[in-house]
What we know:
By secondary structure, the chain is an alpha/beta fold.
Amino acid sequence: MDTESDSPDFEALRAAMVRDQLAGRAITDSRVLAAMGRLERQRFVPEAHQAYAYADYPLPIGEGQTISQPYIVAYMLQALALKGDERVLEVGTGSGYQTALLCLLAAEVISLERHAALSAQAAERLAALGFTNFTLIVGDGWLGAPQFAPYQAITVGAAASRIPPPLVAQLAEGGRLILPVRDGKTPDDQVLVCVRRLRWRLRVDKLCGVRFVPLISDHATPNQSS
């Protein structure tokens, strides 16, 4: 029979995650570290995987999707360089974990999810935790949410075959778009990029190699699955 003593010490696991996986691997943004040290990640994974909520690898959340490993979440949030007054677009609500972190780090969060079931579950979790500065939309992430644009920051949690033009169009002047893009012949060849909108031009910087599930869309270039 399970007892309280058998339950993981989530507070200690979360502290270790921040210390070892994040701060110990060059995550230096104090706001990101504080947010991830505060938010209970186990609430955003299926019960069967809660004991591994703070492990250094992705976990399944249903519908063929995953919650990214904590380090990658922190890395992408740090790359967004949020100050707290931004409107952010998130493509890929998933379990709502990164959505909740964005709610702590930005003024307003618009989050898109292709799978209605995941979006509904995330809405329940976010509401239960008391978050109010978010809007969840079931829709095609490639298209973004132009009705709420412009965005000072956009983050995409699935790998596209190329940078989606609709998302670039929804960036505010000086805004940042962080997303994984396929960088080779196979879906597993991916690189995380930062796209900045600077007056009349875009600046694209490659950040690091990653591996994400593919961004599925009915509106991407024909013969591409992103």
